[in-house]
Amino acid sequence: MMKRIAGLLLFVLAVTMVPAALSQMAPAPTVYTYVSQFQIPRANWAAYAEDTEKSFVPAVEKSLADGAILSWSTFEQVVHTPDGYTHGAAWSSTSIAGLMKVLDEVRKAGPRPGQIAATKHEDLLMQTSLYHAGSGTPAYVRVVCQMAKADKPGEYAAALKKYLVATFEEQVAKGAATYYGLDEQYVNTAPPSIRCLVINYPNAEGMDKWASAISATLGKMSAADRAEFYGSTVADSRRDIMARITHFGHK
After folding, report:
1. This prediction's pTM
2. 250 pLDDT above the threshold of 90
């Protein structure tokens, strides 16, 4: 199951693309995200990147201009694992129909050589209604996925709002981060209680500033507050990723 959580981590890139026009600190409106990710052998990385430029990028740019989607991105992992994914692409919309329009367009030409070389492939369909986008172009994304308590999955989101969202907002306002959001699966291909916190950064320095601010906030919490916060998730279920955003577009 831990491997499955690690795989889910990469869904987040699309949700990090929610444009400022839809930025929210409260649930509404829901944004849906489709993610297609691959494990590409290192010898084929250049070919995969070339295929992405020729096929995927023009298709999503057209759909963005048509209004079918809100945003899109491509990404590559910075921290690699033996069985993890290395590359992927994602796009977001306020409707499932918008997502499927892009998928149909991308699949018209069939799989590209760079994708055929993949040793593993996975698709995900996600949703989010708690997010806030600031300004700036994202360069990196950090994702923290863990399992909420299955009998009370809403407690994790409530704990984030109570203890950390104020710090999140402060860091977005300062420009250390360009986005944060809390995501869950729309199509459950893993335990439904999995929740992923997504943070976008304009540069690596932003990651340092964010980490320092969160550490300071956690350090000020009382023992009772820490027990409530950490008790909202399943112990030892956390898995992280760090990825570089290679292409990005939004309304």
Report:
1. 0.86
2. no
Q: Is the pLDDT of residue 23 over 70?
A: no
Q: What angle in degrees, to the nearest 10, is found between the helix axes of 96-107 and 57-66? A: 140
Rounded distance between C-alpha atoms, residue 187 and residue 191, angstroms: 10
Gap between the terminal Cα atoms of the chain: 36
Confirm if 37 and 121 have CB atoms less than 8 A apart. yes
Q: How far apart are CA 174 and CA 159, in angstroms?
A: 23
Question: Structure tokens of 31?
Answer: 């944004």
Q: In the beta sheet, which residues pair with residue 143?
A: 198, 241
Contact 67/161 with Cβ under 8 angstroms?
no
Q: Which residues, other chains included, contact 1 with Cβ-Cβ below 8 Å and sequence gap of 6+?
A: 190, 191
Higher per-residue pLDDT: 207 or 90: 207
User: Which one, of 44, 48, 45, 65, lies nearest residue 56 by Cα?
Assistant: 48
DSSP-derived secondary structure for 171-234:
HHHHTS-SEEEEEEESS-SS-TTEEEEEEEESSHHHHHHHHHHHHHHHHTS-HHHHHHHHTTB-
Looking at the DSSP assignment, which residues form a beta bridge with residue 215?
A: none
